[in-house]
Design a protein that fits this description.
342 residues; 8 helices; alpha/beta; 4-stranded mixed sheet; disordered C terminus
Length: 342
Amino acid sequence: MTPFAIAGVQMYVNALQSNVEGMIQRLDVLMARFPWTQMVLFSELAPYGPLDRFAQPPENEALDQFCTAARKHRVWLIPGSMFLRDPETGLVYNTSVVINPEGEIIRRYAKMFPFRPYETGIAAGEDFCVFDVPDVGRFGLSICYDIWFPETTRQLTAQGVEVLLHPVLTGTTDRDAELAIARATAAQFQCYVIDVNGLGAGGVGRSLVVDPSAHVLHQSAGQEDMFPIEVDLSAVRRQRETGMKGLGQVLKSFRDRSVDFSVYDRNSGTDAFLKTLGPLEIPQQGTRAGIHVDVPGENKQEAPAYKGAGLEPANLPGAQEDDRRAVTLSPVADDEKQQTSG
């Protein structure tokens, strides 16, 4: 067994003031209550909230405070993420850092898939984040919307990642879908998924810890929560070798595949359909984008002038001579009615 204790912190996040002191206070409480914790993960954009106008320089006081706190408690610390502005280009990235127990930043990761079109002002990162915890195992980092693109987890697990650390800020109605994706990701890639959401401006909570067989080890509700979970990385290695419950060996099956996927070649033409989907933009009121049907009421069918219209008099069942004569009379037009009634 290779045990390792990871704690998620689901906390209330303010949008208009710093949350850094609150994060450090909660870290102190966590370590006092659960001193056996070895790694701590906060939610996406927890330090300064979701507004990019509070973007910080790459080196800032908050990071210094987090490094000091990690060194004090001798823990690995991932303090969610924050908007960092590149001083050379002016571009803003949603960036997470990995701090080791010596208080050193060993990795920086910029979110690859900003939540566009809603985060149009945020630049996309291009580098993956993989790091080793000595004598424990290999960890990878993705941020929120990244997990909706399985290619990101595929890249990480192909490099041996056994635990996917996933800070999120989801305050929208798609949280249920995201929880389903977290469980599916754990099963597809035979890894632990540590999914930490915030509260208030930081999300709707419902943080999640999933093991490699898609079993939920912990599910937070809608209040503040600290949840240390001891993971067993030898279970990951066993499952990847023998399959989930002795069944699907999906990583080896992907390795031994007989097909390459042309959709990843931008020049193959395989993705021609995707180019028909229109621009990546926020829907507007009343939009009917993607619905290629007639709007009800636009193409009205002419109503029959009378019951039985279109039937020849001779074909009317049981018709008598007087009935036939009546049917052949032309109905009065609306304009004629108006003239006669006026």
